[in-house]
Write a structure and sequence with these properties.
Mean pLDDT: 88
Shape: globular
Strand content: 15-25%
CATH topology of the domain at 155-260: D-Maltodextrin-Binding Protein, domain 2
Distance between the termini: 37 Å
Low-confidence stretches: 77-82
Number of helices: 11
CATH class of the domain at 155-260: Alpha Beta
CATH architecture of the domain at 155-260: 3-Layer(aba) Sandwich
Number of strands: 12
Structural class: alpha/beta
Largest sheet: 10 strands, mixed
Order of helices and strands: HHHEEHEHHEHEEEHEHEHEEEH
Radius of gyration: 20 Å
Amino acid sequence: MEIKQLKVFVTVAQHMSFSKASQDLNLSQSSISKYIKQLEEEMDAELFTRSKKQIELTPAGEVFLTEAEQIIKITDGTFDFEENISVGFLPLSMLTFLPKLIEFIKKVMPELKIQFNNYHDNNQLIADLKDGVIDVAFFNENYPPEGIESMVVQEDEIVAFQSTSSPFANLEEITESDLAQLKYILPPREANPFVLDLFFNYCEMLGFEPQVEYFINPHQTRLALASANLGVALDCVSLAHLNTPNLIYTRMEEKLRTYVKIMMGWVPKPTKMNTIQHFQKYFEERTANNQATS
């Protein structure tokens, strides 16, 4: 997913018109349609509903618009320098620590050109890092990949996102006895195999098989489905920043609480290590500051 695709999507959403977006961006209308189609295919989600007279954002499109606008705001102006590094990330990174990291890197390395790559498939993100497609990756904790060095940069609590009209909406916490009663909306296993395996193994230990209504990406679609009261989405609490309408989240009781670890990974390359060390320094100082204030 490229930044120019996000710019096209945001411009179409602002005008609610492919033709006005083409005029604004000085692109042909067919090019605008091509960019939107590619983005929808990559996300495996429809972002606009189309009719002869008008277009409208889908629920997934509305959620994604907030993220796309934030990514564009943060990444604009970082592409005109000589030194470069390619960074791959999952959307949750942009909602939590990545903006502050970029702000820090711009100060200490103002000449650096950063190429941003937005992923929704955790396994593909790690594979591209191993293959040298990207230099740095921010990925969900996974089974240890070979040839990659990494450090923990963020922990995020898993909570249950559910509709305000859900029969479980008034619960203060989700308990063990509640788990078997819920209908689930989950990401495909490749999105976060470590956490999903942990969840299914725990359910098996309790003696039941969870009722999964959907295995689906991206998270915008999962939140939209949960908002429509079609199930409970187990996802990271930071997604609450998206303020999805008619959606609340409920924490798990203490013994059930699980935290997703987001890792920064890299394959050591002499030409990139100076930059990567600045990334490491930022997170080491951030961890030290957090510990000092806790």
